[in-house]
Design a protein that fits this description.
- The complex is a heterotrimer of chains A (78), B (242) and C (752).
- Helix content of chain A is 31%, strand content 31%.
- Chain A contains two helices and three strands; from the N terminus they run E-H-E-H-E.
- Chain A has helices at 17-28, 53-64; strands at 2-10, 40-47, 70-76.
- Chain B is an alpha/beta fold.
- Chain B has a single domain, classed as Class I glutamine amidotransferase (GATase) domain (Rossmann fold, 3-Layer(aba) Sandwich).
- Chain B is built from six helices and eleven strands.
- In chain B, the strands form two sheets. In chain B, strands 2-1-3-4-11-10-9-6-7 form a nine-stranded mixed β-sheet, sandwiched between helices. A two-stranded antiparallel ribbon of chain B has the order 5-8.
- The two termini of chain B are 25 Å apart.
- Helix content of chain C is 36%, strand content 22%.
- In chain C, helix 7 runs parallel beside helix 10 (253-268) and helix 8 packs parallel to helix 10.
- Chain C is globular and about 85 Å long.
- The chains are: A alpha+beta (78), B alpha/beta (242), C alpha+beta (752).
- Chains in contact: A-B, A-C, B-C.
- The B-C interface holds B 23-24, 26-27, 29-30, 33, 48, 62-64, 66-69, 118-120, 122-126, 151, 153, 155, 182-186, 207, 209-210, 212-213, 215-217 and C 159, 162-163, 166-169, 252-255, 257-258, 344-346, 435-447, 458, 574-575, 748-752.
């Protein structure tokens, strides 16, 4: 078994109100050093070997992420 | 009205119940109306100040403070007014958190457990039967075990806590109310609300403030929470002045 | 990157410009050149292209919408067609504004965000009038219930309507859920919002007063929906692969909630002279509309617009459809007060320009002049087309194929099975699966919400004055006869308001059609408008505004013509409203008001049981509708009735099912004439009512005077629906059939 991590983030051009709200809260709490926050999702898949990365990408593209508004990245952990 | 009834009405109107408005609070107007219909005086409190305006108790209303972003209630729990409320609550100020307010109280550490995404993943609004189990400052007007019907409406209302915490809450009689019939969100042990050990700080997922008028609610059962706190505060005053 | 300036445009008249890619025809492009007496800059081209799109300019529909303006004036109408939303006087100094809008294509592309931003947009339209938004309604239409695409689109749309509306704290008080094959690939997501204000608080979209500041406030501007709503509404996107899907907007209801409270506080302090929301076409629309309705000129410094993405070009900033933004015109000495209220609500605000009397809208960017246009030419002088129209060739054959040939149930068991089959179809079944996802209680003034015939809101806690609202439409009737179908949509919404005891006073419309470039569709459109206008004339109702959505078609197959009508009514005392459920009083008797004819063209029975659509729709007798409404208002005010429920889709069978299941109390029914016709005909102008013996006797006298037919059909009680000649149905069986349909299709919502 191999762990495959899929990170899903809103595309950079898409507004991220959640990240905005967190940034604003951090500013109010006095953490002035943080300039931007974006919030995303992380999926951890336990996959039987050998890992078919193309298949994982398809899973991410069709189910885990909404390609209309989100990008994803796949990391096979070794 | 008899003279004594007028006195009571006058005394009730002297009880000041604060209702906090956070950015994204929605049921603040409803909570204020419920206080008014119970005979008390609602006082609007603003999230950005440190001023509790000498209120006798506080209601944290329902809604989506900060859009429920990050976690429901999380960002609101850090607001200036919450610092004052947390301090005052630890010194005995009664606090009722309804729905999002319950989430804020859990995030602030004033109540155990957390509210998470409903098990069926949908927002759900329905008229819900509850059993009132704990006698608190906010539930004194209900008979023990009373069953009431009030709306429940939330997307993140599933009460969860660690096994030890749940066991302690049960053992100490701190389950404020339980869902009767279908559990609307998958809450552990059908828990709809909990109280702290003093019975003054309570959180409830369903909405008693939406069940205070026959015209607009499924019942008027919710009024009991608001008459209870007024009676409790007047009772405490009588003791301290008597 | 090189900036295309006004000066450069004058120097390079022959530079090629991508007008066709932006959806402008050659003659439209030439017209812009004629207006400016030079080629447009690329920023100007962007502005003209979005503002002259079908979505913004109504270029195909304008000539046909004239009958609405020709309706006799109404004393109640305070603001009519042309503003963000119409405004109606409801008495006691209150003014109500309401409007419906479509977000069909965006909801097909990204169901959750498409529906969510649809709610956001219509709520801002209502807010812009100076009103506090009070509630929303969502007439929704999808393809076949069992289709895979419906399973993709419907749950997302419902979650989006709920996610946004719930977070705004607006109760959802009603709507529609209709399934029909014609909406496959073209779901209709219409949203209505209603708001209230005092008469003196009405605000308008105009920019008067040279020297006044132009302020943008709300979310920052990002590359959202560039060429989104406008371009989407102008073209189909059937050939596009998912990766080429147009950019969609993401809604932020939290910011919108702050914007609402911020605006209401600004209005209360009287700090604006004009206000406009940013909808389709964003800054292009807001600046040109405000300027052309005001002193006539405006200068905007685009660099002052707060941006989410610093790489945006000036054209993108002008076209961006980022949500949750507003534009206000503020007198110089009130700017500080305005900004202070924005700061209190943590709403970002920036002064981006000044009103002037130059008659020009000028825009500068990085120190260069990039726009110099007469604003009226962008906002109002777009092309107007008289598109060819012709009655479709198949219309005669369709109308000739009547339902008479369809086999009908006759035995007691067959009639029972037909009833159970109909009410178990998603079109007639319980909609709780959807409506449980919406908050109906917030604000504490919801007197009636779904599944009642109309939503009823209390407006004043002291006087008990209130309003009733219903939205209705029937594409099947419209396909058979668009003129009559549109009249029936008006009639049904009117009747749904009337059965609550309210007096209907105004309508709004949301017109969903196929491509205006198809003569058959254009004929349907023109016929529908004529039908609505004639119905309104007969009922004495003004049209307060509306929305047109074209291009709802896949290839050359258009949706059925689907005008959705919203009717607003007034209740002097909401405590006297009528409800649909039987069993709230002892000894209730049941009567049917109106005339039942053998009318099955376009009926749910023909569609569900036989997959048939043909013949003619039911008769639309608007005078009879008005008489019925008059009797119902009188009966409510005199408290003669304990229940009232409209008869429409699915006929009396569906009405009885809903009335007995509301409180779980049965009924014994005896029907005159042919039982099949009595149960399943969809004749309009009918209502089921219940009352005590005294109440019904009083009602009968009033009906006789008003010439409204009244027939006693039974009594309330027991635990079954028992209809003479039909095998009795235990309520438990009826409930199972009625409630299981949607959860079975879209997933049970009972937690594990």
């Amino acid at each position: 078994m191999t762990r495959v991590v899929v990170d899903v983030m809103l595309k950079t051009e898409i507004s991220d109100p959640q990240g905005q709200a967190v940034l604003s809260a951090l500013t109010k709490l006095g953490h002035q050093g943080v300039q931007a926050v974006r919030q995303g999702k992380r999926f951890e898949l336990e996959v039987t070997d050998p890992v078919d990365e193309a298949a994982i990408r398809q899973i991410a593209d069709t189910l885990l992420a909404n390609p209309v508004i989100e990008d994803f990245s796949v990391h096979v952990q070794t | 009205m008899t003279a004594s009834a007028q006195d009571v009405a006058g005394d009730l109107a002297d009880v000041r119940i604060g209702v906090v408005t956070f950015p994204g609070s929605l049921d603040d107007g409803d909570a204020a109306r419920a206080v008014r219909l119970a005979g008390g005086s609602p006082v609007a409190l603003w999230h950005g100040t440190h001023d509790l305006e000498a209120v006798d108790a506080v209601i944290l209303p329902g809604g989506f403070s900060y859009g429920d972003y990050l976690r429901a209630g999380a960002i609101a729990s850090f607001s200036p007014i919450m610092r004052e409320i947390i301090d005052a609550a630890r010194r005995g100020l009664p606090v009722l958190g309804i729905c999002n307010g319950f989430q804020v109280l859990c995030e602030a550490g004033l109540l155990p457990g957390a509210l998470t995404r409903n098990a069926h993943l949908h927002f759900r609004n329905r008229d819900q039967c509850l059993r009132i189990e704990a006698r608190t400052a906010w539930t004194g007007d209900f008979e023990p075990g009373a069953e009431i019907v009030v709306p429940v409406k939330n997307g993140e209302g599933r009460y969860v806590a660690g096994a030890e915490v749940l066991a302690a809450v049960e053992a100490e009689g701190r389950v404020l109310a339980r869902y009767v019939g279908a559990n609307p969100n998958g809450s552990s042990r059908d828990i709809a609300g909990v109280t702290d050990s003093t019975g003054r700080i309570v959180g409830l997922m369903p909405h008693p403030e939406h069940a205070v008028e026959a015209l607009t609610g499924p019942s008027t059962d919710g009024l009991g929470f608001f008459t209870s706190i007024l009676a409790s505060i007047l009772g405490a005053r009588a003791v301290s002045t008597g | 990157m090189k900036i295309d300036t006004v000066e450069a445009a004058g120097r390079t008249p022959d530079q090629e410009q991508p007008h066709a890619a932006l959806g402008l025809r050659g003659d439209e492009y030439q017209r812009i050149r004629d207006i400016l007496d030079r080629r447009p800059t690329s920023a100007e081209l962007a502005m003209y292209s979005v503002m002259w799109s079908e979505h913004c300019s109504y270029k195909s529909s304008k000539v046909h919408l004239r009958p609405f303006g020709d309706l006799p004036s109404s004393e109640r109408l305070m603001v009519g067609i042309g503003e963000n939303a119409g405004v109606v006087d409801i008495g006691d100094g209150y003014a109500v504004t309401f409007k419906a809008e479509s977000h069909n294509h965006p909801s097909y592309v990204e169901p959750y965000q498409g529906a969510a931003t649809g709610v956001g947009g219509i709520v801002r339209d209502i807010l812009t009038m100076g009103a506090r938004p009070l509630a929303v309604m969502d007439p929704l239409r999808f393809g076949p219930p069992e289709a895979a695409d419906t399973a993709r689109v419907l749950p997302g749309v419902v979650a989006g309507v709920g996610g946004y509306g719930n977070c705004l704290g607006l109760p959802n008080i009603g709507g529609e859920l209709v399934f029909d094959g014609c909406y496959a690939g073209n779901p209709l997501v219409n949203v209505l919002c209603v708001g209230v204000m005092r008469h003196e608080d009405i605000k308008l979209a105009r920019a008067p007063g040279p020297g006044n500041a132009v302020i943008i406030f709300g979310s920052r501007t990002g590359p959202d929906g560039i060429g989104g709503a406008s371009i989407l509404a102008s073209e189909t996107f059937e050939d596009q692969k998912p990766t080429k899907r147009p950019s969609v907007q993401v809604g932020d209801p939290f910011t919108e909630k702050l914007l609402i409270e911020c605006c209401l506080e600004i209005f209360a302090a009287d700090l604006v002279v004009g206000i406009q929301d940013f909808g389709a076409a964003g800054l292009s629309c807001a600046t040109t509309e405000l300027a052309s309705a005001g002193t006539g000129g405006m200068h905007v410094v685009l660099d002052e617009v707060p941006l989410r993405d610093q790489t945006m070009t000036c054209e993108e900033i002008l076209m961006s459809e980022s949500q949750e933004r507003m534009c206000a015109i503020v007198e110089p000495d009130k700017v500080d007060g305005f900004l202070a209220i924005c700061a209190k609500w943590e709403v970002r605000a920036a002064v981006i320009g000044t009103v002037n009397d130059s008659g020009r809208l000028t825009v500068e960017w990085r120190g260069e002049q990039i726009v110099d246009v007469p604003p009226r030419t962008v906002a109002h002088d777009g092309p107007v087309y008289e598109r060819p129209l012709s009655r479709p060739d198949d219309q005669d054959a369709l109308q000739a194929d009547t339902p008479d040939r369809l086999s009908r149930p006759s035995s007691a068991d067959e009639l029972r099975d037909t009833l159970l089959g109909l009410i178990a179809h998603p079109n007639l079944a319980d909609k709780t699966w959807v409506t449980e996802q919406y908050d109906s209680y917030v604000r504490g003034n919801t007197v009636l919400s779904q599944p009642e015939d109309a939503g009823v809101l209390r407006i004043d806690e002291q006087t008990h004055r209130g309003i009733a609202l219903s939205t209705d439409g029937n594409g099947r009737y419209g396909r058979l006869d668009p003129y009559v179908g549109a009249q029936l949509a008006v009639a049904e919404a009117y009747r749904n308001v009337a059965v609550t005891g309210a007096t209907p006073i105004a309508i709004t419309d949301c017109l969903n059609f196929g491509s205006p470039e198809e003569p058959g569709v254009m004929w349907q459109f023109a016929e529908s408008i004529r039908g609505i206008a004639d119905a309104c004339r007969e009922l004495g109702l003004p049209v307060t505004g509306g929305n047109v959505s074209f291009y709802n078609q896949t290839g050359d197959v258009a949706i059925h013509p689907t005008p959705v009508i919203g009717v607003l009514g007034v209740l002097d005392d909401v405590r006297l409203r009528l409800r649909q459920g039987l069993g709230r009083a002892a000894g209730e008797q049941i009567a049917l008001l109106g005339t039942t004819r053998a009318e099955f063209g376009g009926s749910q029975w023909a569609g569900i049981m036989h997959g048939h659509l043909g013949g003619l729709p039911p008769t639309a007798d608007l005078a009879a509708e008005a008489r019925l409404a008059g009797v119902l208002a009188q009966a409510a005010a005199r408290q003669w009735l304990t229940a009232a429920h409209d008869v429409s889709d699915g006929g009396l069978a569906a009405t009885l099912t809903e009335s007995v299941l509301r409180y779980g109390v049965g009924a014994q029914i005896s029907l005159p004439g042919d039982r099949f016709v009595a149960l399943f005909s969809e004749s309009a102008g009918r209502a089921l009512v219940a009352g005590t013996a005294y109440g019904l006797a009083a009602l009968e006298v009033a009906c006789t005077e008003a010439r409204v037919p009244v027939t006693r059909i039974g009594t309330v009680g027991g635990d079954e629906l028992a209809i003479d000649g039909v095998t009795p149905i235990p309520l438990a069986d009826l409930r199972t059939a009625w409630t299981d349909a949607l959860p079975r299709l879209f997933g049970a919502v009972t937690p594990p």
